[in-house]
C-alpha cells in the first residue's frame, strides 16, 4: 500500500514537493489509497522541513554565541 519514502535532495525540493501534494489533496480527486500515500509523504516532508529549519536555527545561534553578536544582514 505505502511507497517507500525517501529523503528529499534539499529543503527547497522538499518544500516544492509538499506544495504539490497539498494542491493534489485540496483538489480531492485522488483515490483514497493514493490520497493516504500522498498525505503520508506530506507528513514526512513537513517533518524534514521542520527539522532542517530547527537545525539551521541552532547553527546560527551557536555561531552568534561563539563569535558574539554577528550582523546577519552584512552590515
TrEMBL record:
Keyword vocabulary terms for this entry: Cytoplasm, Exonuclease, Hydrolase, Nuclease
Keyword field contains NADP: no
Keyword Nuclease: yes
Single annotated GO MF: exodeoxyribonuclease VII activity
Annotated HAMAP family: Exonuc_7_S (MF_00337)
Source species of the chain: Fundicoccus culcitae
NCBIfam families: PRK00977.1-2, PRK00977.1-4, xseB
Subunit structure and binding partners: Heterooligomer composed of large and small subunits.
Main subcellular location: cytoplasm
Pfam families in UniProt: Exonuc_VII_S
Role summary: Bidirectionally degrades single-stranded DNA into large acid-insoluble oligonucleotides, which are then degraded further into small acid-soluble oligonucleotides.
Residues annotated as transmembrane: none
Annotated protein name in UniProt: Exodeoxyribonuclease 7 small subunit
Similarity annotation: Belongs to the XseB family.
